[in-house]
Amino acid sequence: MVDSNQETRGVVGDILNLIGLQTGMQFETIVVKSNEEMVSEMKKNNWHIVQAATYDLSRENALSFTHPFITTQFVTVVRKENTQETTLRAGMNVAIGADHAFTGKA
């Protein structure tokens, strides 16, 4: 995530800041609007590191993935007034961002 000054924040921002303090390396944050734009920029060698990317077999041909240094669980978000069980079952509708790796479009 980036702040209003386009500075990387959050866990990855903290890690990159620590690396910078220990090595003198400086990192430039570049923001894109989609996974397709991210892959396009990587293929042109305009970037060297992506701070957060979901592994997808189709991306493996163009990008090299390290072992994850942090993993997070996916969560279910429901309406606050929903008092029913929130277990995902066959036939339920699930919203996924257009460029998420699970859509197969990225």
Automatic annotation (TrEMBL):
Record keywords: Transferase included?
yes
From which source organism is this entry?
Answer: Citrobacter koseri (Citrobacter diversus)
Extract the GO molecular function terms from the UniProt entry: protein histidine kinase activity
- Mind telling me which Pfam families this protein's record contains? SBP_bac_3
EC number(s) from the headed UniProt entry: 2.7.13.3
- Say yes or no: keyword Membrane present: no
Solute-binding protein family 3/N-terminal domain ranges (all copies): 2-96
Judged by the first EC level, this protein's enzyme class is: transferase
Q: What is this protein called?
A: Sensor protein evgS
Query: What keywords would UniProt list here?
Result: Transferase
